[in-house]
Amino acid sequence: MAVEELSVVLPRVLIVSRRTVRKNKFVDFVGEYHLDLIVSYGAVPVIVPRVSGVHMLLDSFEPIHGVLLCEGEDIDPSLYNDELSNLSVEELEEIRRLHASDTAIDKEKDTIELRLAKLCLERNIPYLGICRGSQVLNVACGGTLIQDIGKEISKNLPESQRVVHMDYDNYDGHRHVIEVVEETPLHHWFKDSLEDEKMEISVNSYHHQGVKKLAQRFVPMAFAPDGLVEGFYDPDAYNPAEGKFIMGLQFHPERMRQEDSDEFDYPGCTFAYQEFVKAVVAYQKKLLSTTTIQKPLKLNQEMEKKRKIIVRSFSLARDLYEKGRTFQPSKTSDLDVGAEFLEVHE
């Protein structure tokens, strides 16, 4: 199959960009790990720039066969009715100082991503949320977020239960343990890597926020030792073979790779993307099968006879006009039919 044909038939996965500063100017980007995995499993990533006004142009990105939302800044707390929380002014200042690159609210990105998440929920479009993307999904369904894990969870726990969820000095190398919930998609993906009946794997993450109240429609798939939900899904909207996939992962399976290698820590790391794209492909097929193609009108015998007379009348009229030819009186009726047709369709 030619490359130009592939671009037509492959399903489209929308991914919203993130803003950063380069050479004193804002630039938008998406991590290549996400793009590589989407392409490798048979879909086309379509980057939605998080620039002003794009939230009003989302119809222009149709058809949408899947949405992958990933990392980014903190979500505006007013969107989940937790603008002030219980944190003191001093604590909020310290959070902004410690997490300066993450606490700068990006309202345009919030608006775009929440609209896309809600669109997926309304139309059953496959959705995979990684890190911030999982938080967007939870907020879109009425859930809430912890504004800072250190201030709201860790300080109230014994040292043995505290979890470091991010390391600014070691993004890719940082790992912490999570406990996988049995009989969930995450369990099926990583079951061959679970040792001695322990339902634990070590994951990469970098986030200082997380799920506080999980939206009612979701079921947890994993927990960190501090109780934080590390993955969840909608069991009523999960069947990749039928185009159903609504899921959020707080950790980063795409970054769980061995040092100086593209080899993943566990075989299950890529399954989230593989099953997501499987759902995207199935969703596209479902859309194509339900698209109504208008069949050409089939003329009955009488209509076909009249059509031929009309065509013949045009030829007679042309000869009469261009060449001054005369015609037999029997052909007058043909001209009358043609004239009637033109009057009706003026």
From TrEMBL:
InterPro entries referenced in this protein's UniProt entry, alphabetically: Class_I_gatase-like, Peptidase_C26, PuuD-like
CDD domains: GATase1_2 (cd01745)
Entries under PROSITE patterns matching the protein: GATASE_TYPE_1
An example Gene Ontology molecular-function term: hydrolase activity, acting on carbon-nitrogen (but not peptide) bonds, in linear amides
A Pfam family hit: Peptidase_C26
SUPFAM superfamilies: Class I glutamine amidotransferase-like (SSF52317)
PANTHER family: GLUTAMINE AMIDOTRANSFERASE PB2B2.05-RELATED (PTHR43235:SF1)
Name of protein: Gamma-glutamyl-gamma-aminobutyrate hydrolase
Organism this protein belongs to: Solanum tuberosum
Lineage start: Eukaryota, Viridiplantae, Streptophyta, Embryophyta, Tracheophyta
